[in-house]
Specification:
The chain starts with a strand and ends in a 9-residue tail after the last helix. It has 182 residues and is of the alpha/beta class. The longest helix is centred in the middle third of the chain and has 18 residues. It is built from five helices and seven strands. The chain has a seven-stranded mixed β-sheet, with helices on both faces. The relative contact order is 0.22. It has one domain: Leucine Aminopeptidase, subunit E, domain 1, CATH 3.40.220.10. Bound molecules: ligand AR6. Ligand AR6 binds next to β3 and α1.
Length: 182
Amino acid sequence: MNRTFGGATIACVRGDITEQQVDAIVNAANAQLAGGGGVDGAIHRAGGPSIMAECRTIGGCLTGQAVRTGAGDLPAEHVIHAVGPIWRGGEHDEADLLASAYESSLKVAAESGARTIAFPSISTGAYGYPKANAAAIAMGTVASHAPELGFREVRFVLFSDADLKVYLQALADVAPSEASGR
Ligand code: AR6
């Protein structure tokens, strides 16, 4: 299922983020930009060493923010390294920090000229964020900011059928008032 908000189509697919043919893919990175497992490991493995070389030059990224590198050998042009919050029970600003990671990713990608972007489920793996809550925040944030930033497509790429189902439900649940899809 897809929905379009003010010219920006939001789609959910099951797949591997490294294989997406979009202008920008988003990495679920850590604040040190040091690489790791999950999405981060897959992106650096498939993209080759130039991405880590750029990350070292940048040096780090605050939680809730995002930075851009090239995409090395990946089909995308840009990798946007977003740092989501570590889940610590929900009373440590996790929701705002997760929304900010999505919004910052969209802004950084748009500044690089991206019109299509693919996101993984940031913070819901090693960082432990409950998936349904994270999906609702991801959808609400993207629906309200992607149109004004000129995106044509925002694709959520989920690694399992169970995660896909959660994100499809969150997409169905986005209220028109949450979106800037005016
Ligand atoms: N494509 C799409 N989704 C994936 C892929 C893939 N290739 N691989 C895993 N997932 P995580 P986080 C899913 O742990 O929670 C790293 O070590 C996975 O099933 O990658 O933000 C970093 O270096 C899960 O649903 O990101 C950080 O230290 C989701 O992507 C830390 O983990 C996110 O899981 C970041 O943790």
